[in-house]
Amino acid sequence: MQHHTHQQQDTHSPQKGHSHPSTHLSAEQSADGGHSKHAGHSPEMFKWRFFICLLLTLPILYFDPHFQEWFNYQSPQFPGSNWISPVLSTVVYFYGGWVFLRGAWREFHTRIGMMTLIALAITVAFVYSLAISFGLEGMPFYWELATLVVIMLLGHWIEMASVQGASRALEHLAQLVPATAHRLVAGQIEEASVSQLQEGDRILIRPGEQVPVDGTVIEGVSNLNEAFLTGESRPVLKQTGDEVIAGAVNSEGALTVEVTRTGDRTTLSQIMRLVEEAQTSRSRYQALADQIAYWLTLIAIAVGSLTLVIWIAVSRDWNFAVNRSVTVLVIACPHALGLAIPLVIVNATGLSARHGILVRNREAFERARNIKAIAFDKTGTLTQGEFGVQRIVTDGIEPQEALTIAAALEALSEHPLAQSIVKEAQSQHISPAQAKEFQSVTGQGVEGIIQSKRYRVGRPEWAEGLGLKRSAVLQAGLQTIEARGESAIALFDDAQVLAFFGLADQVRESAREAVKKLHVMGLLVVMITGDAEAVAKTVAADLGIDRYYARVLPQDKAALIERLKKEQPTAFVGDGINDAPALTAANLGLAIGAGTNVAIESADLVLINSSPLDATYALKLAKVTYNKMIQNLFWATGYNIIAIPLAAGIAYPLGILLSPAIGAVLMSLSTVIVSVNAVLLRTVKLD
Fold first, then answer.
1. Is the N or C terminus of the chain more exposed, i.e. has fewer CB atoms within 10 Å?
2. pLDDT at 77 over 70
3. How high is the pLDDT of residue 2?
4. What residues are paired with 504 via a beta bridge?
5. pLDDT > 90: what percent of the chain?
6. Residue 218 confidence (pLDDT)
7. Which of 647, 683, 642 is nearest to 663 (CA)?
């Protein structure tokens, strides 16, 4: 006799999700999360003002006495040459500095901040210099004023260009949807605007075209590229009954699709809405940055005023005192501070969206970094939600032969378990023989004649009822199958039982890898399921899960999550429908699912690829994002500890003195560092 035990795990093929929206925020609104310091501004506006003011600044520098002395040259003198710098500086002050003056006016009616400091610095320098031109004794600050405005414009141009670049993902998503579609009406094809399509309409999608709306394939077979959503470049096969997503690109075949969702209800729209909400929602660290910026502004004004008073009292030199005071105001500008957190969030949400992770609110990043345990719903999350053959136990027959016979009979059955055996045969490239005299026996199974011999496939109890014997090997195999919580299917002829098939909900290969990664990250992995103890124990052992809870009713999951939270911060990963209470109860809720489930309101994060592996990517991104926030807060504020005292002139006796222009350079440098550090998030490899 031959004795065989055959085990197999099927690989996971991620379900695909998708999306599209009708409105999107401006880049500056996205970055500022509601701040209005750049309301109505654009990178182009700052760019033009920068270049024009730069051209106006060159003559100011050329005619300035300091530059003539430093570079040892003599500028030409002619009637009115003394007024070149005052006139050009006036233009620079009002044209280039107007955005800062207007911003300060808005802040004055709400809460003072960065714009107030910039406006105060350039106004003091301008008024004092103009007073000197009209007769007051002293040295004017025209070149400092002009260079200060130019550097500020450059800094804001860089800032807004960076923010706009980080927010481009929304614009790209919006461009994925074509403007028109081929609608089928009474057998004829007509061009129709996508906005005119309604649910139930039928449209034709030709090879090479993009899908205009969500729908279901009713005719045709083709491969679609959904890389815009999932990052997976491999085409996805679509045939009758499959869902297609707005924005996907059709490859080689023509598809007839029935529209199921249009406009803001398409998955692409939902994704864009979630990205927008994430980029504009408030962050605890952003609130902290805003608070620091407010106090830094007050400190700068206080220190600048004190510096002015002290240097006037000590040196009796108004020119030197004003110079020190202006430098303090410039160097303390919380420009980088206002950008530190928003730009990190914009880049993080864009990166997560490209990996199929949608962030519903910014605080998710901050809470995710503290997670110590992660609980998974089993069915459809750790498993594929459909049965597959886990093992074949045979005696007196080869496993492949047993599968061939069973598949020949089950191919004619509509039972879900029967289809699992047929799929297993297909995966092994087995072509079942033709069964004759097929019939279904209610409550038992199916039977038929294959190559002149009658076989039956069905419940083990059916074979027992017919008085058929089973060998010790088969009995042991059946006990193993039942102990693991698998469903047993028997194959037998008129004389004896030939094989047992163990069927179970198949574990996702991505789940196995996810558990390994989570253990490396030091997290406790928990599984929650409504299945029996044997099933839960088997899946937990297979995946290496630390703790599992079986026979948990949907309404009891939230209470269980509350218990786990008392031990340590806990995340929960579920399908987002019946798991909504548990998702809400967890410290971090991750909804796994695609299609209409993508905009699940109860979750903090949505994993649209339906892969538990994305949960590890989300936690990794959260930790990296948090680190970037802290780094940016340091770069935006730390230099002030040294820079403000130097600007005030504390090191003047040592020969160290910062001019307002140098102060502007240092302030702008901190802004550039913060921006570059945030943009570096794009280089993070989550996988």
1. N
2. yes
3. 42
4. 388
5. 17
6. 93
7. 647
**The dihedral formed by the CA atoms of 171, 173, 175 and 176, expressed in degrees to the nearest 10:** 170
Q: Which of 377, 531, 575, 614 is catalytic?
A: 377
Write out the two tokens for 473.
């090997």
The pLDDT, as a whole number, for residue 639 is 74
Cβ proximity of 643 and 331 under 8 Å: yes
Q: Report yes or no: 377 and 531 within 8 Å, Cβ to Cβ.
A: no
State both tokens at 264.
């803001």
Distance of CA 492 to the CA centre of its chain: 53
Question: Please, are residues 216 and 197 in contact by the beta-carbon 8 Å criterion?
Answer: no
CA angle 500/501/503 to nearest 5° reads 145
Q: Within 10 A of 258 (CB to CB), how many other CB atoms are there?
A: 16
**Distance in angstroms (rounded) separating the CA atoms of residues 172 and 136:** 57
> In CATH, what number does 386-505 get?
3.40.1110.10
Mean pLDDT of 199-223: 90
Q: ∠ CA(175), CA(597), CA(194), 5° rounding?
A: 35
Tokens 């004003």 belong to which residue? 322
* Whole-Å CA distances, 657 to 71, 147, 487: 20, 17, 82
Q: Which of 19-33, 262-276, 306-320 has the highest mean pLDDT?
A: 306-320
Backbone φ and ψ of 391, nearest 5°: -155, 155
Separation between Cα atoms, residue 53 and residue 47, nearest integer Å: 10
CB atoms within 10 A of CB 555: 10
CA distance 214 to 181: 12
CA distance 503 to 386: 10
Domain boundaries, given as residue ranges, for the chain:
27-166+281-355+616-687, 178-272, 356-382+507-615, 386-505
Compute CA 368 distance to the chain's CA centroid, rounded to the nearest angstrom. Answer: 13
Residue ranges in 396-441 assigned as alpha helix (H): 399-410, 416-427
Residue 596 pLDDT: 37
In the block, tokens 């088997």 appear at: 538
Sign of CA dihedral 374, 377, 381, 383: positive
User: By the 8 A CB rule, do 518 and 472 touch?
Assistant: no
Report the candidate in 221, 346, 448, 383 with the shortest Cα–Cα distance to residue 678. 346
Is the pTM above the cut of 0.70? Answer: no
| Separation of alpha carbons 633 and 375, rounded Å | 33
Which residues, in sequence order, are bridge partners of residue 216?
A: 243, 258
Treating both helix axes as pointing N-terminal to C-terminal, what angle do 267-280 and 335-354 enclose, rounded to 10 degrees? 160
How many other C-beta atoms lie within 10 A of the C-beta of residue 474? 24
Q: Which pair of structure tokens corresponds to residue 397?
A: 């027959």
**Which uninterrupted H or E stretch holds 581?**
helix 580-585
Q: Is 242 a catalytic residue?
A: no
Beta bridge partners of 376: 527, 573
Tell me how far CA of residue 557 lies from CA of 377, 550, 589, in angstroms: 9, 11, 13
Paired strand residues for 487:
503
What are the start-end ranges of the E strands in 521-623?
A: 524-528, 547-549, 570-574, 588-592, 605-607
Q: What is the pLDDT of residue 362?
A: 64
- Please count the residues of the chain: 687
CATH class of 356-382+507-615: alpha beta
Cα–Cα distance between 654 and 611 in angstroms, integer? 62
- Which two tokens mark 474? 């088969």
Helix/strand/coil for 121:
helix
The DSSP line for 373-399 is: EEEEEIIIIIEEEEEEEEEEEEESS-H
Q: Domain 178-272, what fold?
A: 2.70.150
